[in-house]
Amino acid sequence: MAASLFKWLFLFLHPLYISVTEISHNAKDKTLEISCKMFTNDLEATLEKTAHAKVDLSEPKDKKVTDKLITEYVGQHLQLKIDGKTVSLHFIGSEKEADGTWSYFVVNDVVTVKRMEIVNSLLYDNFDQEINIIHASVGGGKKSTRLNYPDTATTLEF
Fold first, then answer.
1. For 15-25, how does the pLDDT look when each residue is reduced to its tens digit (9 = 90+)?
2. What is the DSSP letter of 15?
3. Phi, psi of 28 (to 5 degrees)
4. What angle (nearest 5°) sits at the alpha carbon of residue 144, between those of residues 68 and 7?
5. Within a domain: residue 120?
6. Strand positions, DSSP E, the chain
7. What is the mean pLDDT of the chain?
């Protein structure tokens, strides 16, 4: 009981602002599969600021509208270049899980990946303590990095 109370007090007094982006190259399908997880309340607050409207990701009135908001937001704040070529993220879907919301994207026609340039400023426009963690898997190798506000760019070599 005391441990859970301490954990709750710690999170209440010292909130965490973290997103996780996972990028995986699927060589067989020649795609990049991208998953972004953000705390639901942080994403809602950020989308509300952008859309100038109330956003409820737990019980959306219109899931198509909220998915469009997520698509546009992530598209503006997560950009990738693969081997020097800018690629487009295509929205697959989103789902809420406990305190987080996952959004899923795919990039088509990616045969190989030697160099991945990533610009990630997810939630930076609302939280100046944001930490964006990035995990990338290519050809059986995995690399991870983090971007602490205000840093937005990183490059991974495979």
1. 789 999 999 99
2. -
3. -60, -45
4. 80
5. yes
6. 18-26, 31-39, 78-82, 85-87, 90-97, 100-107, 115-120, 131-138, 141-148, 153-157
7. 92
- Is residue 9 domain-resident? no
User: Has residue 10 been placed in a domain?
Assistant: no
Q: How far apart are CA 5 and CA 2, in angstroms?
A: 5
Quote the number of domains for the chain: 1
Average pLDDT over residues 150-156: 98
Q: What is the dihedral of CA 152, 56, 63, 134, to 10 degrees?
A: 20
- Contact criterion met (CB below 8 Å) for 69 and 54: no
Pairing of strands 78-82, 85-87: antiparallel
Q: What are residue 155's DSSP bridge partners?
A: 117
* CA count, 13 A, side-chain hemisphere, 146: 11
| pLDDT tens track for 53-102 | 999 999 999 999 999 999 999 999 999 999 999 999 999 999 999 999 99
The 10s digit of each residue's pLDDT in 109-144 is 999 999 999 999 999 999 999 999 999 999 999 999
Q: Residue 7 carries which side chain, given as an amino acid letter?
A: K
Residue 5 lies in a domain: no
Please give the Cα distance from 90 to 74 (Å, whole number).
11
Give the range of the structural domain holding residue 35, as residue numbers without chain letter. 17-157
